Amino acid sequence: MVIEPAVRHPGATAALLAELGPQKVFTEHAVRLAHAHDNTRIAFLPEAVVKPADEADLAYLLRLANERDVPVYVRGAGTGTTGASAPLRGGWVVSLTHWDKIEIDADAGMARVQPGAITGKINEEAAKHGLFFPPDPSSVKHCTIGGNIATNAGGLRAAKYGVTRDYVYALEGLLPTGEPVKWAGPVRKYVSGYNLRDLWIGSEGTLGVITSAVIKLVPLPKSRRTFQCAFRTDEDALRACVALLRTRVVTSVCEFLDTQTVACAEHRAGKPVFSRDELGPDGPATPAVMLLELDGHPAQIAEESRTLREWAGEHALVLRETDDAAEAEKLWHLRRTCSQAMFMHGNAKLNEDIVVPLRSYLPLLRLTREVKEATGLATPTFGHAADGNFHVHIMYNREDPDQCRKAEAGILMLMKAVVDMGGAITGEHGVGLAKSPFLAIQHSPAEIGAMLAIKRALDPRDILGRGQIFEVTNIWEHTPIKVTMPWDKH
Ligand SMILES: Cc1cc2nc3c(=O)[nH]c(=O)nc-3n(C[C@H](O)[C@H](O)[C@H](O)COP(=O)(O)OP(=O)(O)OC[C@H]3O[C@@H](n4cnc5c(N)ncnc54)[C@H](O)[C@@H]3O)c2cc1C
């Protein structure tokens, strides 16, 4: 169902159209609908979509929005999974996907990029110079660097390489009131004044519009080796993960897939991932799985591979490995397909990207089972095991009110326990709308008050991302629209 805005601003939209023209301001229903939602598919219809030609257009739009009290929502590729770019209160969506210049400064190990540059494309350009941008959300072929910075996106390689924040030298953009600002510059060290660059990173489009960024590039690893291991139980796999960290081998990928997740993927493929011969006669019907990758100099990989084999000999039932790219892709297949496979348990999924400390891995596993028992709903879980960022899914049928209620109760149970463990309600996707009901579980009134004081100081009319993060929105009360998005094919 598409949600229409409660308050409209026809006069302001007409003024914007008159100033910028119909090549930049779109009021057709189809364009507005395409910009009404992100990957959550919960659609809030904006009054107009604006594709500014330059900073002057953008500054005009923001000044007008402040004068006429029009909410503005900045949008990258719309791959977000929390509704953070959705125009909750209508108003205008600013789309910057056409601002996509990429300039590589190979000697400096930097790139100056516009916010609409696709992250995968930045890596293609950087690779021509033997460099890469390590943060790698699975949406890398579609998402923009502006969206990555605004959500401080993480990804599969975060345990070794860190997250987006670790790769941003400088940002340029506009304050919500329309004034241009520069936070830092194309230099490796910068400690002048308050660090508002880092305040913008992860602020989900609520504190400013990013129009340019200087990001850090690092040398491409010379080689790579991929490993896939099977474990008798989920507990064995998670204990093995802790043991792996103790070996001090830092893998670039360390993905855990629990037995529920592997069972979904096996059901979808119609065949087991590991043969009975491999698992042994006493082996489990469905194993837990870890996918690991080493990258670096071949000599270093050879040495670390020896350590990994010893580790697997102690902890795993099966170890597969390859340094052939096509063979590696076969080992990756399970991880790439498991998310879609979960829909065998229901037509709707609550996908939580919680993060817990290392000591809480086994309690988290127990918790996912308690949620499963308490709700009767499947809770397949996979995630980035080296940094504690697990994706816990609760699968349910949207048409079944009882299941909806149980899924909601299950998520609440999960969030409270995760915070009690010293973890966080989100490790990489951000708050947006989807996590807003849990913000008060994570943060004290003083913490939320401090955040709101910053918001008021930079955005006194509450123009950017109105209603996002701080107002409680139960998105599961809304029905997502049926639409195929480009990344659905993968
Ligand atoms: C298949 C799939 C896999 C994913 N895997 C991961 C993953 O591994 N790790 C991860 O972290 N995320 C992942 N995500 C979530 C998503 O891709 C990231 O949050 C990504 O950073 C969003 O980028 P985007 O360009 O699509 O931004 P959008 O979804 O359009 O917007 C996201 C936020 O950024 C803000 N924003 C966008 N551009 C600007 C700008 N120029 N100035 C200010 N604010 C701006 C928006 O207002 C919004 O708050 C995945 C999503 C999908 C669909």
Strand content is 15-25%
Shape: globular
Number of strands: 20
Radius of gyration: 23 Å
* Average pLDDT taken over every residue: 97
Write up what this structure looks like.
The structure is a single chain. The protein has 490 residues and is an alpha+beta fold. It has three domains: 1-220 and 441-490, Uridine Diphospho-n-acetylenolpyruvylglucosamine Reductase, domain 3 (2-Layer Sandwich), CATH 3.30.465; 223-342, Alpha-Beta Plaits (2-Layer Sandwich), CATH 3.30.70.2190; 346-430, 2-Layer Sandwich (Alpha-Beta Plaits), CATH 3.30.70.2740. The protein has helices at 10-20, 29-34, 55-68, 119-127, 145-151, 158-161, 196-200, 234-246, 259-269, 276-279, 298-315, 325-341, 361-375, 401-420, 439-442, 445-458, and strands at residues 2-3, 25-26, 43-44, 48-50, 72-75, 92-95, 102-105, 110-113, 131-132, 168-174, 180-183, 209-216, 218-219, 223-231, 253-257, 288-296, 318-322, 348-352, 381-384, 389-396. It has a seven-stranded antiparallel sheet with strand order 17-14-16-15-19-20-18, sandwiched between helices. A hairpin with a 5-residue loop joins strand 10 (168-174) and strand 11. Helix 9 packs across helix 12 (325-341). The two termini are 25 Å apart. The structure holds flavin-adenine dinucleotide.
Quickly list its features.
binds flavin-adenine dinucleotide; Alpha-Beta Plaits; 490 residues; Uridine Diphospho-n-acetylenolpyruvylglucosamine Reductase, domain 3; alpha+beta
